[in-house]
Structures are given as C-alpha cells and as structure tokens.
Amino acid sequence: MMPRYQKVKDHILGHIGSGAWPSGHRVPSENELVKLLSVSRMTVNRAMKELSDEGLLTRVAGVGTFVADRTAHANPLEVHNIASEIRNRGGEHTVQVLRLEAVDAKGDMARSFNAAPGATVFHSLMVHCENGVPVQLEDRYVNPAIAPGYLGVDFTRTTAHQYLIEVAPLQEVEHILRAVMPTAQVRRLLKMPEGEPCLMLQRRTWSGGQVATSSRFYYPGSRYEFSGRFKP
Amino acid sequence: MMPRYQKVKDHILGHIGSGAWPSGHRVPSENELVKLLSVSRMTVNRAMKELSDEGLLTRVAGVGTFVADRTAHANPLEVHNIASEIRNRGGEHTVQVLRLEAVDAKGDMARSFNAAPGATVFHSLMVHCENGVPVQLEDRYVNPAIAPGYLGVDFTRTTAHQYLIEVAPLQEVEHILRAVMPTAQVRRLLKMPEGEPCLMLQRRTWSGGQVATSSRFYYPGSRYEFSGRFKP
DNA sequence: GGCTACCTCTTGTATAGACAAGTATAGCCT
DNA sequence: AGGCTATACTTGTCTATACAAGAGGTAGCC
User: Fold this and answer.
1) Domain residues for B60?
2) Which terminus of chain A has a smaller tally of CB atoms within 10 A, N or C?
3) Domain boundary among A28, A51, A67
4) d(C-alpha A203, C-alpha A76), whole Å
5) Which of B49, B67, B85 is at the close of a domain?
6) Number of structural domains, chain A?
7) Which residues pair with B175 in a beta bridge?
8) CB proximity A176 to B under 8 Å
C-alpha cells in the first residue's frame, strides 16, 4: 500500500504535470487539502514540505503555497549516451559485450535495489570504444521488474541507456563521481597503462518509484573528462 | 529561538564532527534520544530523517541508525563553498594560505584571461582541511580588474569563493573534471599516500563579460567525491 | 489621508499516542 | 542440525491537537 503522503504528492503532481496548475499557481492550503483528501494536516504538511524541498513548490508562511518556476532549474551532469556522444565527435563507436546474464543479488547490490538478498537481477558488462580505443567500461545491474526483456537486447544496435529510457521513463538519478585506481581487470579491459587513474561514475536511476538500474562506469583518466558550461 | 529538531541535529552533528562517532557507528535509537534530549519522538524522527536525506545517516527499519560512510561530496554542477560544505557536515574547517601574490601572466594563463602576456594577475594557493585533514588544494588566478582588493582579503575569515561572489556576480561558469595522478608537490600538500589519484576540477568563471577567475582544485581520491541527485 | 489595533488565514513547529512493518535473536520443536 | 515461532526492538507512517509566527486585510480612530 502506498503511504498517504504519497497520495497527496501524487494529487499535486498530477495537476502540475497535466498543466492544470502552471508556474505561480496557488496550491490549495493545507486545511483545504485535509478536507479534500481526508487525511490529517500533518500528512499534507509532510507531502508539501517534501515537494518544497524537491523544488517543485514554494511555500511562504502566512501567504500560501505556489507552484515553483521550474525553468530556472538547470540540468547538472546529464545522463548521456556514450554512443551518440562519440558519434557527435565524428568518431566510430563500437561495443564489446563481455557479460549479459541473470545473477543473484547479494549484500550491497540487493540493498541498493531495496530487494531481498538472493533476488534475481540482470547484469551486463561491456566496453565502449571510440575508433577502436576503449573509453568506457560499463558495469550495469538492471531491475528485471523494470526491464524484463533486457537480456534479449542486441546491444550492437542500441545502447543499454537507449533501451532503458524507452521501456522505463527516468524519474530520478543519483550520481557519485570519484577518482580511483583501476583494478587489474578494469585496467586490462580498458587497455590502460600502469599507474594511470580512472574516473569512476556510479549511478542509480529510479523509475516508477523503484530502483531501475545501478551502474558503474569507468573512464581512463587520460582519455576522458567531464566538462560543462552553464550560467548560474 | 532555534527549533528543537535543530537541537537534535546539532547534537548528532557534534558527535560526528568531533570524531566521537566514526563512519558506521550506531546512533542512539529514536526513543533513546527522546529520553536524552527531552523532546518528542516525532521531533527526533524529523531530525534524523533530514540528516538521512542529506546523506549523513543511514537508517534501516528494524535495525537502527548509523553514521553513513561517505567521504566528502559535492554536486559537480554547483559552484560550492568548501568551508560551508564542511561545516554542514559538522566538521571543522581550517585553511592554510600558502601564496597570495601578484604575478605576471604568461602563455596559457594570459590567454585564458584574454590578456596580453605579461599582464598582472593575482594568484592564491591554499589548502582547505576538514578536522585537520586536507581535502582540497585551491590554486586560483584572479582578474585584478574584477577583484582589485583580492590580495587584502583575510581568508581565515572568509573564503575566496565567498569574497568573489560578493564583489562580482557570477555570469557564467565552465568546468572540466578529470582523474589525474598528483604531482609530487600536490601530493605533499594534500598529505596523500603514494599511488593515490586525484580528482582535478578546472574552472573558469565570467563576470561582466570578462574572465574573472581561472582555478584548479585538487581533491584526494580517497577523501572526496562529487555526488548529485536530480530529476530529469 | 494615515495610523494603529485587531482579526483571520497561512505555514511552521511540537507533542502524545497509536499501529504497521522490517530485522534480529533466543529458544523451542522436529 | 535445521527450521520454525515468539518476542523485542527498531524505523515508518498517521492522527488529533496545540501554539507560534508570518503576512495581509479591515475597522475604527486621530
């Protein structure tokens, strides 16, 4: 059963998503929603506070609650598609699929999916090359409930990224970016010289309220960098 | 008057910040804190939930609440203030100013400022520490036309970042993020063990149509990470 | 007009109590 | 030994109530 504050959030999100409540529109007060949805004021307060923390609503004590102006919210690190990125640079993208299998999630992996240890998850391991030179090692775990057909995908024709956004709309993304020394296996697969560090991007995505994927991407330090330019 | 949930958060942050509760340490249960701090359970719950949302605590229903094992982290898109970031985690921020001087820009540096070679620019080099441990080496060049008073700033009282946004509103930001091996000097200043990589963030900022700063930030790979969470 | 006092509606914080759900463990039974 | 259950403790959610604080309007006064 979905928690009640989620019901309240969905009610508000529905009106925003459909366009019925544009930016700046006044949202009903807490007491009005109490009557309308038959929940307590604390529950409405929690729902609106969370939406406010997430930047979707603006609240002013004594005045009311309003739909926030979302155009100001710029995109951080994009969830990018390595294949199109390479092609945009004029390079030739090739991929080598090393593993594509169902495995039992254990320990940390099960926890990151909020699943019971031993639950089945899909696992893929592939190397992406630009003009034959490895630039990304993609170690990905996928929730079968979100993408049941994952094991049957032909990854030489589409990327995991492309497939996943088609079957499951992205709801939320979490990134962690670190500098690490590669393990011997990672170093070998990326054909890296000894002593060179890696950028490691760890990413989890959510779809339909569930964790959809949990992935690690390794980039050779000398062949890849993240860059961006924006106006605050 | 400070809200009571803040009192609870400060109590927990104090123990984390002082090192009394290391990563993985079990935090007292909600009911224990209720008795200890004489507040209601809902207030303790709010405090711990917020710290959990902020990534400082990990909570597992039926088990307990634990200090999260997260190294330093920051959102790569934000131009962040290292001092307030450390203090938000409950840590103690100290800074050591190694250089603060006017130098002649040559070659690349002059070009990145769109200035003639030999033009004067301000240069600062400082190490930021969290509880005495170096977490960031800041190597910054500043356009004197934008911040003429830069050399007179007391950086033990404010950060370069703070000062610059006060005297010059940010117009645009460009950054590049790489994994590199530190030079001997960088490694020594950050007190890093041999063989450990660095995250290097290179950033240029614009203000009033001119390049305002050109900086490099080095972070020890084992003590810092960039993280972010967002909805596409 | 301009001012103050008051009233009302809003969100913000806090409490006590309740039940649900997740997890670990001790101890019992087969 | 292996499997089961009862239990104790944890966090998660929800309610009803209360008071505080912020903001705006209005009536009445000078």
Assistant:
1) 4-67
2) N
3) A67
4) 14
5) B67
6) 2
7) A228, B203
8) yes
